[in-house]
Design a protein that fits this description.
Length: 71
């Protein structure tokens, strides 16, 4: 059975490849702050109670799609 978090990372990858990853990171952090959610929940708690990966995991994943400008 596929975990919902795997689908979330697939969605993040698609979005990062079709938009600016930094804009997605900024929006994700803003959404967590607006909802008063912690960006770094305890790992055990998040595994049992979160339907999405913690924001830090998603931000770190999205950062892997940021490319340095070439000169």
């Amino acid at each position: 059975e596929e975990r919902p978090s795997a689908r979330e990372f697939e969605a993040d990858e698609f979005a990062a490849k079709n938009a600016e990853p930094q804009d997605l990171i900024d929006a994700l952090i803003r959404m967590y702050k607006d909802n008063s959610s912690t960006l770094t929940p305890h790992p055990t708690f998040s595994k049992f109670y979160y339907s999405h990966p913690p924001a830090k995991e998603r931000v770190d994943f999205l950062k892997s799609f940021i490319t340095e400008p070439t000169s």
